[in-house]
């Protein structure tokens, strides 16, 4: 579980992902928004949240999309793109995220002024191209991004659930 650039996987000969078409690049900003503003702007109750996905020509010819989801007192807003598309279009992920943050559609949720309190970026393997059928060798078991266990279904990207399940199964096998 040592991540997308797993040295253990490379040293064991289990990872040889080198090409940009085998990766996604995600960037995310967390923006402070008061709890009452989230409830009002998204029409959600105290223990509810909202999520939105964005696709289309918002990002020009760069293949990918965007997302927004509510937290208790903040919004997580981000983009995920095919790395080869970013390279081909000479696009900068942070500029594409800024384009999403400043899009008129988001103004209804962000308001006129907002503060970014966190910024993160993540390289994600394209599991359709790199997922390992047998993510093990000798006494080494790979889980999560090291094993290419992210799953993209259109705009929905899952991975943490696969990593947790694989890690639990690996721990069970080790205990036995």
Automatic annotation (TrEMBL):
The keyword Methyltransferase does not apply. Its cofactor is FAD. GO terms for molecular function: oxidoreductase activity. SUPFAM superfamilies: FAD-linked reductases, C-terminal domain, FAD/NAD(P)-binding domain. Keywords: FAD, Flavoprotein, Oxidoreductase. PANTHER family: ELECTRON TRANSFER FLAVOPROTEIN-QUINONE OXIDOREDUCTASE YDIS-RELATED. This is Flavoprotein.
């Amino acid at each position: 579980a040592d991540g997308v650039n797993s040295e253990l996987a490379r040293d064991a000969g289990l990872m040889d992902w080198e090409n940009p078409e085998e990766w996604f690049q995600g960037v995310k900003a967390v923006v402070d928004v008061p709890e009452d503003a989230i409830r009002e702007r998204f029409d959600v109750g105290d223990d509810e949240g909202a999520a939105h996905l964005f696709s289309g020509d918002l990002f020009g010819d760069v293949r990918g999309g965007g997302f927004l989801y509510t937290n208790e007192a903040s919004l997580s807003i981000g983009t995920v793109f095919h790395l080869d598309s970013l390279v081909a279009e000479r696009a900068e992920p942070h500029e594409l995220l800024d384009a999403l943050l400043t899009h008129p559609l988001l103004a209804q949720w962000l308001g006129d002024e907002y503060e970014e309190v966190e910024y993160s970026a993540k390289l994600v393997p394209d599991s359709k191209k790199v997922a390992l059928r047998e993510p093990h060798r000798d006494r080494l078991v790979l889980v999560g991004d090291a094993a290419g266990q992210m799953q993209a279904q259109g705009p929905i990207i899952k991975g943490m659930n696969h990593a947790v399940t694989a890690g639990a199964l690996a721990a069970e096998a080790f205990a036995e």
